[in-house]
Write a structure and sequence with these properties.
The protein contains seven helices and five strands, in the order H-H-E-H-E-H-E-H-E-H-E-H. With 149 residues, the protein is an alpha/beta fold. Helix 4 runs parallel beside helix 5. The longest helix has 13 residues.
């Protein structure tokens, strides 16, 4: 019973669930060439209150970004065709780019440096706890207070 209460408290503190009723949930685009990973992320993020769309390739992700509003992209690096690095670079050239969190099986320091240089909010390595991914996404989407001065 204590565990259930803790889970409910965590769910209620999620930015996707606490947004005003007048505003829709944040939209997250998950991009991974592994369908099982996409499905797992989609289900977990929907459970956390996010609206989720999925893409199985870099080209599909860019097409989705052209036709739909997306607040955050959860991006794999190692995909055939357009790599996650190439997708991230193209996202960075958009007039109003969504935030990007990289979730990948590649955990080398050079990749981390390159991803951060290209503007990613964070870099996570697989396997990664689903609740932690949700917290990172929430932090990325949390509005930054304006400085008054």
């Amino acid at each position: 019973m204590a565990h259930r209460k803790k889970v409910e408290e965590n769910m209620n503190s999620n930015p996707a669930r606490t947004r005003s009723a007048k505003k829709p949930a944040w939209t997250v685009l998950t991009v991974d060439d592994d369908a099982a990973v996409r499905d797992l992320l989609r289900d977990a993020l929907r459970h956390q209150g996010y609206r989720v769309c999925c893409a199985g390739s870099g080209a599909e992700a860019l097409a989705t970004l052209r036709r739909e509003h997306v607040d955050l992209v959860l991006l794999d690096l190692g995909m055939p065709g357009l790599t996650g690095f190439q997708v991230l670079e193209r996202i960075g050239r958009m007039p109003r780019p969504p935030k990007v969190v990289v979730l990948t099986g590649f955990g080398d320091l050079d990749s981390v440096r390159e991803v951060m240089r290209l503007g990613a909010f964070d870099y996570l390595t697989k396997p990664c706890d689903l609740e932690y991914i949700g917290r990172v996404i929430g932090a990325a989407l949390e509005p930054v207070p304006e400085c008054v001065g």
